[in-house]
Amino acid sequence: MKGAMKKISVLAVLIACCITLSGCLTHWFLDSTTRLQIENKSSKTVVEVDILAEDGSYRAWIQDTLRTGEKSRVYEEDWVGTFTLRIRTLGADFDIQNLSFDGGSEYMVLSDDEDGSLHYEFK
Amino acid sequence: MQFVLKSALISLVLVGIVLADGIKPDALAKDGAVTRDRHLTEIRDIMRGGRGGYIDFGFYYTPSREQLPLESQYGEHDGFAFNHHFAAFGAGEVAKNRHMGALLWFDRSGWDGEDFFLFPQYNDFGLQRSVVTWGLTFTDARMNWTLAAGMQHQNLEHHGKLYPDESDSLAYSWAHLRFSKLSAQANFYRTDWRLFRVSLDLESRAIYGGRKSGLLTYLPNVSLSMYNTDDENDIDSMRINWEQNLYDQRLYAEVAIDLNDTWFHSAALKFYPDPSRMIGFEATCLNRVRHKQLSDDFVEEESDLLWGGAIDLLFARFAYNAAYDYENFFGAKGTFLVEFKFNLATIDGWLFNRGAARSAPMQTDVVKQFDKKAGSNEITPIGSAKGAPKTIEAKGIRYEKVGSEGGN
User: Fold this and answer.
1) Residue B138 pLDDT > 80, yes or no?
2) Any idea where the domains of chain B sit in the sequence?
3) Is this complex scored with an ipTM above 0.95?
4) What are B146-149's contacts with CB under 8 Å, separation 24+?
5) Which of A25, A57, A78, A83 to mutate to test the interface with B (most CBs of B within 10 A)?
6) A-chain residues near B111 (CB < 8 A)
């Protein structure tokens, strides 16, 4: 009987551990939203940053107009995972495929590429 | 050896997490109907006896947020699919052989950006839904029939921007009528029917007063389910489930057949080391049918077989690609799933797991222990060797005649 009680209490502790682990604990060290800020060091004027869908539709993330040398405000959205980012500039759109966001603050710097497209870098 | 086994297990789990497939918003949107149907099949199993009690609770545990990402048209969202469930049934004898009871089944499931137990993140792409099935039961144990009826409530707490509109509904009703081994179930949404199910549980089960062995235990359990998903009164789909005892009520085969062009839906081979089903091993095969919209009026049908298995250890269930999880956990596949859970049914003081044919061996253990105790209290002559026949000489033993009441 004592042995059974011990087994049950061990099980109870195990289950309690799992419940605590399952209760938002990963949120202590993982961000579940992404806060994005963009600095435009390219020669183009960025008018919008969107997340692109498979069917060609999109959801806007940053709608600030950024001339050369300007920074956007910080926008917090629920984009955590792997997505396609579309950067709309005056004249052309640039898609960044399979861009992965792990959550938290992201500071993206856009600059001119040698072949005339945009180059991006996270700082 | 233990180290090798442990590292093999850990690497398998890691591979399972890395190679996991995302779940589709479509599967999340449809899960309300799936859950309501599952509640009613579980209630049917428990109503085979219609008396005693039943308790069930559990939740899936997915430690990594890359394990079951949401695969939307935008890409792959990191997060957690979740399912918390609870069920209880209890009946009492109100008159001789007449049992009245109440039952409650509860599921909260969906997908969220955070893992949680009570308070989700409710992000732009999550979906949280709860389904409650409750009812009252009446069983006449002598005539062997049961009537149960109640309501189902489907409540969408939150849905993100990917899902079709769904209104909360209190307006589902259900009824279950069993006469001996034949039972019928109906589920309505307002005045439209959603489900009719006829089940023939022919297998002889010792737990309900049937045979422990013999030919009668090899009779099949068959059910026919008819579903209607819209307001029109036609049948949208039909499924036949066949459960067959293959050996000693420990080895079962289960086959599900859809009555449409695809026919084969799923098959499972289940092994329970004990017929009480406290522990189970299963290998499953599921026919995945996907519809690809090629143009407005041309749909291509693709299908492949999903092989998987699961181990059920009473308090935890470990599964990989198992048909049950694919159907009831939003098409989760390609990953190892752990479900912490417990379920136990009781009837006349005997314990078993839902669907079992015989009671748990714990009961016989109690009897054995009792015997042992009685044995150790026996008078053993001093100096008698172990194993030697015990002899008690009748020296001065006095018999007392004990009256039937209160002694002499």
Assistant:
1) yes
2) 20-356
3) no
4) B146/B47, B146/B50, B146/B176, B146/B177, B146/B178, B146/B183, B147/B175, B147/B176, B147/B177, B147/B178, B148/B43, B148/B47, B148/B50, B148/B103, B148/B175, B148/B176, B148/B177, B149/B173, B149/B174, B149/B175, B149/B176
5) A78
6) none
